[in-house]
Design a protein that fits this description.
alpha+beta, globular, 23% helix, 4-stranded antiparallel beta sheet
Length: 75
């Protein structure tokens, strides 16, 4: 599977402290060893190991649920 971008957006700092950054996340076969999670933040790209990807996505899911986005009707 080629690179699949699931989210790409210029995000502004809600507290207006740091400005804005373009953030993207998805999967890619760039390394040739199957799908890998990638994250790009301010033009710095990272390909995750499978172990790091699992830990990162668990942490993101915990934050998602803590904010109430997984609840009926949303936050």
């Amino acid at each position: 599977m080629p690179t699949k971008v699931d989210f790409k957006r210029t995000v502004r700092d809600h507290a207006k402290l740091e400005g804005e950054a373009t953030i993207s996340i998805g999967t890619t076969t760039f390394t040739g060893d199957g799908d890998r999670l990638f994250l790009n933040f301010k033009d710095v790209g990272i390909l995750f190991s499978h172990e790091d990807a699992e830990d990162f996505l668990k942490a993101a899911m915990n934050a998602y649920l803590r904010l109430g986005y997984g609840a009926e009707g949303g936050a």
